[in-house]
Every structure is written in C-alpha cells, then in structure tokens.
Amino acid sequence: MIQANELRLGNWLKRNSQPNGFLVDVQTIVRLVHSGVRDEHPIPLTPEILEKCGFENDNVFKKMFKYLNKSIYDTDKLTFRKEEGFICFDGIKYRTLLKHVIYLHQLQNLYFALTGEELTVNL
Is the residue at 73 inside a domain? Predict the structure, then answer.
C-alpha cells in the first residue's frame, strides 16, 4: 500500500476508475492520510512505462537508460536492468544500485532528487 509521505505533487498513480493513471494533487495526498478507503495504487515500472519517461532501450546490454545533464551532476545516466533495478553511473567506475525503485512515483522522485527537474511522463 502506498504511503502519503512517499508522494510529491505531480507524481502519477493508478486509480481503479482511471486505467491510465492520474497526477497526484494535494487533495489526493490529504485523502490518503485521512481515509480508510484507498483507491489509489502505485504504477509498477515496465519497459513501456520507462519508454514513456524517455528511457532508451539498449538491446545489446539488455538495459534501458536515460541520459542526465553531466555538466551539473556527477551521474551521466540512469540505467535500468531488470535483474538489478536502477543504477546510477558516474561514467567511469562508480555505481549506486537502487533496487527499491519499482514504481513510477519512486522513479519520478529519484529523478527530481538527481536533477532538480521533473521527469516528463507521457502516459
């Protein structure tokens, strides 16, 4: 079950009545905190969702990746491998493994933390 403290304005969630998901707003977060009935669910990450977030598929290395602005950040790309989860690379040898990022709202929050920008999601 999703917790309200995991959410930021602009995160995407799934509602049973809306199959493509919806953007989280303040009212949704407040309702999640105070309501016993929850119709909102996290959206699991799939290759299709990652493509809608601008990730590119690399069939050779069986991964999906998105370039970040290396001139500002130490990380040059964010990579997803199904068996490992998300990995932040510095382009040479260091990497950070992020197995716990399995839902779209978590990816949105990670991307914002790394770049200070919102992740564009074309659902």
Answer: yes
DSSP 60: T
121 assigned to some structural domain? no
Integer-rounded Cα Rg, in Å, for the chain is 15
Does pLDDT of 44 surpass 60? yes
For the segment 7-32, the average pLDDT, to the nearest whole number, is 77
Q: Which residues pair with 89 in a beta bridge?
A: 77, 95
Give residues with Cβ within 8 angstroms of 16, minimum separation 6: 39, 41
- 37 with 63, same domain? no
Q: Which range marks the domain in which residue 97 is found? A: 47-115
Is the four-CA dihedral 55, 123, 119, 49 of positive or negative sign? negative
